[in-house]
Design goal:
This protein is 28% helix and 23% strand. With 255 residues, it is α+β, with helices and mostly antiparallel strands. The strands form 4 sheets. The chain has a 5-stranded antiparallel beta sheet. A 3-stranded antiparallel beta sheet has the order 1-3-4. A 3-stranded antiparallel beta sheet has the order 2-10-9, with no helix packed on it. Strand 5 (173-175) and strand 6 (182-186) form a beta hairpin.
């Protein structure tokens, strides 16, 4: 069941989304060579405390997970695609880092992600990140009243495939609101004109993920959470929480 949010509820979700935006910005600014992933998690946790917000990530345990998620920030490095658990690993020059963060404020949730390189970037990594961001922008552009979920999926997939990148099979965006994951699912590849019609008041987390090697294959790391590319190539992730409105898409997690 898809809950259509009122304009007042969307405004409240924007407030939650801005906590997410501040945390991602703070974690990005703190990321440097020698900084540990646990230190980035603590930076994000501090933003939650200051805002009086809660984490929808901490303690989250979907059916596939062997244990509850132990942090407020997902940090995925190099060949990790998503769901990376923060550890004592210290960032190295040239690491490609994807951070994903959620916040719950006033009963509403926001969710967003970004990717960047620490230190001196490889041109191939910059192209990968730029493609993820372009795919996200294309998906948001398609998120208008009267379109369908398939139009968002097609827009994302076209950008990713045209660049020669893989798309992790079975992973994509989702509805969001009072809970982090709600209906409908938002695939990162699909046929235009298919799926649920978009209506004013729907709120979606749109999140393309791209694999540099061009394959769609991945596996779970021994921690049971982190998803890694099978070919060892690097991955990037971009995400925003977006409200569908009669005035056009509204990015609730804009930084």
């Amino acid at each position: 069941m898809v809950e259509l949010k009122t304009d007042t509820s969307i405004d409240a979700m924007y407030e939650a989304g801005q906590v997410v935006a501040r945390a991602l910005t703070a974690a990005r600014e703190a990321a440097d060579v020698g900084v540990s992933l646990l230190e980035l998690d603590e930076v994000a946790h501090d933003v939650l405390r200051e805002a009086g917000a809660a984490s929808p990530f901490l303690g989250y345990r979907p059916s596939f997970a062997p244990t509850p998620f132990p942090a407020v920030l997902c940090v995925s490095v190099n060949d990790a695609i998503v769901h990376g658990i923060p550890t004592r690993y210290r960032l190295r020059d040239g690491d490609l880092v994807s951070i994903d963060f959620g916040a719950e404020l006033g009963g509403w949730v926001g969710d967003s992600a970004l990717s960047f390189v620490v230190g001196r970037p490889r041109p191939d990594d910059l192209r990968l990140i730029e493609t993820a961001e372009r795919a996200l922008a294309a998906g948001i552009e398609a998120a208008v009243v009267g379109n369908r979920i398939g139009d968002i999926a097609h827009a994302i997939g076209t950008v990713c495939r045209s660049a020669g990148y893989g798309i992790p099979d079975g992973f994509g965006g989702h509805g969001i609101g009072r809970r982090m994951h709600e209906d409908p699912g938002v695939p990162n590849e699909g046929r235009p004109g298919r799926g649920m019609r978009l209506r004013h008041g729907m709120v979606l987390a749109i999140e393309p993920m791209v694999i540099a090697g061009g394959t769609d294959d991945y596996h779970a790391a021994p921690d049971g959470w982190t998803l890694k590319t099978n070919d060892g190539s690097r991955a990037a992730h971009a995400e925003h929480t977006v409200a569908i409105t009669d005035a056009g898409p509204r990015i609730l997690t804009a930084r």
